[in-house]
Amino acid sequence: MQENLFPEMSQKKSDNTKVIGANLSLIFNRRNKNLVILKNRDVIVKKVDLSDKPAKKLLVLDIALKGINPIG
Question: What pTM value is reported for the model?
Fold first, then answer.
């Protein structure tokens, strides 16, 4: 019954989607394991190639900042 109140909560996330909190999720590409998409409330924030070490570090910083200030 309550699942009908929040349809986005009742939708099953696929195996390649990892919810990391603060309305953030990571979607891993099935074909290329090095590609990941960061989403905030199902809106794409950033696409990152994890084989690029500086880009990976910036992704971690973005996740930390979004978690601290979810509106920004």
Answer: 0.71
